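Data deposition worksheet. Section B asks for the primary sequence of the deposited chain exactly as it was used as input, without tags or linkers unless they were present during the calculation. Section C holds the resulting structure in token form. Section D is free text for depositor observations; keep each observation to a single sentence. Incomplete worksheets are returned to the depositor.
Section A, Depositor: J.P.
Section B:
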Amino acid sequence: MGFHGGGWWAYISHDEQQTRPIITRALLWRVWQFAKPYRLKIILLLLTILMITGLTLVSPLLVRSLIDDAIPNRDYRLLTLLAVGMVAIPIVNGGIGVLQRSLNSQIGEGVIFDLRRALYEHMQQMSLRFFTQSRTGELMSRLNNDVIGAQRAISETIVTIISNLVSFAGTLIILLTLEWRLTLLGLAILPFFVLPARRVGRVLRDLRRKSLEISAEMNATMNETLNVSGALLVKLFGRQQREMKRFADDAADVRDIGVRSAVIGRWFFMMLSIIGAVGTAVVYWVGGYLVLEEAFTIGTIVAFGSYLSQLYGPLMALTNAPVEFAQSMVSFERVFEALDIPVEIGEKADAQTLREVDGRLQFHNVSFTYTDEEKGGLREVTRFNRGSSAALLKRGKARQNGEVLPESGETAEPELRYALQNITFTIEPGELVALVGPSGAGKTTITYLIPRLYDPTDGRITLDNHDLRDLTLNTLADNIGMVTQESYLFYDTIRANLLYARPDATEQQMMAAAQAANIHDFIVQLPDQYDTVVGERGYRLSGGERQRIAIARVVLKDPRLLVLDEATSHLDSLSEALIQEALAKVMKDRSSLVIAHRLSTILAADKILVMHQGELVEQGTHEELLAQGGLYTNLYETQFKPKELV
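Section C:
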């Protein structure tokens, strides 16, 4: 990437065509809400800024007094006082600077904590839809890169702007007092600061935004390929080189933007330095002429030169301050964009808590679709007339592939496809209901609706005649237990994974749950027994062992309603038998809905629900459904019966 032939300035000129960032009063007020708890420290911080600036402005006056008074008049006492003052000012300034740094870090780190906590708590309230439509790496980027960027906006950018404003105003007042004509001459070069600062500032802001977007993409790539499942997939298909290249491309983009920002910034400050040097030289030349004409003293011109350098530094920063501030607000925008995603699965203010649950579950004409754009995942903020980063990413990838995508309206309206349509059934207390059907029939979707991982698009679901949306989320969590086909375990000990369901459980209760799930004997044979670390997602254990630990976790929870994906078809015969036995114990005297894969479970069911293409096409007992000769009969002949005969 070169900057020859005016390339870098051409890029800057092109950026002039971009729309200015909009900093609204609402955005600033919202930022202030996060800074408000630290207002006392902010006031103290402002006081330290005033004190440091004031002491700094005194130093050139000491030099002037030294040259004009102490030395010509051979005043030893004044000379000594001035020397002590020159030492004392840096010492006092240093002490105040330490206090300023302490206050600044407390404010900045406090804002980081508050933002991260608010963002994490909000994400914890998101529905499953949010996580299926959002990339984990992007979420991590919001919690790390963007939050830190927002912290810098408060603890660095704003503080720097205030410091420069105070320094500029104080220096300007003193300069006007010393010699107003030279001051006006020094300010005459102001337009030469403003124009390049505005242009380059916008470029740096734009590069900052792109850097955040590409960093999020790089984080997503790392998250997808460095977890156990992703690494396994990469190795099985031999795509290590492809993933290394993909990561290298993203990392190269981050590198190139960093280099571009550094080079453009260096060119910019070199120009400003030259302009400042020219202004200083002109002032010294005119000032020297006035000294020769005895218009004012040598000490005055020396002090004036010192103040002029103190004027140009803040001036350089302040000419770019509005754009720097807007650039820093990009991080706040990205954090607020995530915080503003509505909570799809919310809890009503008057939600009920059920003390006793019988376990009567009813679906009333329930329909559901996953394709709901109003309730999607994390999307990028549209900024500065550029479109969302998702759209930018699509356009970028398309360019790499030689394709052309439109600048607006990148995606067509999705066709609304229902995963469930008009589902009605009842599970009575203590009843075992088996859910069967071909792949994609909607069985798993039904199980997701029961604990309110999603809400129905139409219709309602009731527990003991209470709409699930009228109950507290804790009521549902306490009384509904679910074991999915892919059991997830945290990178922790077996004990910690079991107690996740019931942190206050005793050792005896935990072991009893493990025994009920037929996993206790296996655990006690391990060197560390219940303190054995299971590894990432529990991958140090076999599939059957993970499944039984997941069942033990649900047993320890002791819910009134069980939702199970039997999920034994991929296990060895011993693990399958152990899990079948464990499930039989767990389901006893509880309302249970089981996605059945075994004929033994189906025959034990009080009722069988037959799903096909999102519709409940048949329901009844095994004998009743066989007598109908419908879809269930076909499933029995092709799936269930052959399994039992093998």
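Section D:
Residues 240-292 form the longest helix (53 residues).
The CA atoms of residues 175 and 183 lie 6 Å apart.
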